[in-house]
Amino acid sequence: MRNGILPGRSVVAASKRRRFRVHVRQGGTRYTSKEANSLMTAPPVKQAKLFTLGHSNLEMSDMLGTLLRHEIKVLCDVRSRPGSFRYPQFNRQALEARLAAAKIRYEFFGEQLGGRPLDPRYYLPNGLVDYAGRRKAPDFLEAVDRAITRACEAPTAILCAEEDPLYCHRFLLICPTLVQKGALPLHLRRGGVIESQRDAEDRLLQSHGFADVTSDSLFAHGREAALEDALRLQAEQYAFRTSPEAIEYF
User: Fold this and answer.
1) Strand 29-31 relative to strand 186-188: parallel, antiparallel, unpaired?
2) What is d(CA 240, CA 238) in angstroms, rounded to the nearest whole number?
3) Dist CA 40 CA 30 (whole Å)
4) Which residue from 172, 171, 178, 114 is spatially nearest to 150, judged by alpha carbons?
5) Phi/psi of residue 66, each to 5°?
6) Hey, which bits of the chain come out as E strands?
7) What angle (nearest 5°) sits at the alpha carbon of residue 114, between those of residues 113 and 118?
8) What's the Cα-to-Cα distance from 245 to each of 134, 235, 241, 250, rounded to whole Å?
């Protein structure tokens, strides 16, 4: 109000337009305030296309067929010891050669993402691998980020030995961190079955008596805490365990 006279609508509108058209100089270009704010919003991260599988007792041709069917270009081997006495076709050298012939890149992640860490700090007093502690390790987190980067660049699979992810450290140790970082893996199962991370989690919850918080439950709000408990209980049964006396020699 000026001299007791209210400004007309045209004056108010012009004032609003002037406030809106504050310009910001960036790289020699002038932007309105609205445009400048949009420049500060990070672009969406490219969705990772990430799978997991366990070679189990498959024939090499069957596993390669699975990888090729899903157009997988990178295989991240998370076995601490990339060899198999019972299934020598999956020894590292033989596996690398067959993957190279199929134009699939092999990368070894076993030192950072393996289920048998060499560092004795990541074992509990009873000799069990400390999965919760391992997930906080800088080298573990760096390797998870690297695997996600690979999956954003090209379809990528995480390989271990167990067919069922619920009995493997790739699910019990690695997948919780992948999910936390927004990368939801798909699990390639025997017979061409594809199991989602959510469905695998539901199976785990049901097996430990938490069916009341699975996806089709009315009380799924308690899912996160129940899943943490279920992962811990499953790890107590299936995580690698060594004798407490052996830890000091690691």
Assistant:
1) unpaired
2) 6
3) 15
4) 178
5) -65, -45
6) 24-26, 29-31, 50-54, 74-77, 105-108, 156-160, 186-188, 194-196
7) 105
8) 20, 21, 12, 10
Side chain identity at residue 159, one-letter code: L
- Closest residue by Cα to residue 109 from 170, 185, 177: 170
Question: pLDDT tens digits, residue range 27-47?
Answer: 333 333 333 333 333 344 468
* Identity of the residue numbered 53: L
Q: Domains (ranges, CATH) in the chain? A: 9-39 (no CATH), 50-238 (3.90.190)
What are the tens digits of pLDDT across the range 108-143? Answer: 999 999 999 999 999 999 999 999 999 999 999 999
Phi, psi of 54, rounded to the nearest 5 degrees: -115, 135
Q: Tokens 């407490």 — which residue?
A: 244
Percentage of the chain exceeding pLDDT 90: 72
In a 3-state reduction of DSSP, which class is residue 193? Answer: coil
- Please give the model's pTM, rounded to 2 decimal places: 0.80
55: tokens are: 């070679």
Q: What is the dihedral of CA 231, 237, 238, 239, to 10 degrees?
A: 80
Beta bridge partners of 196: 186
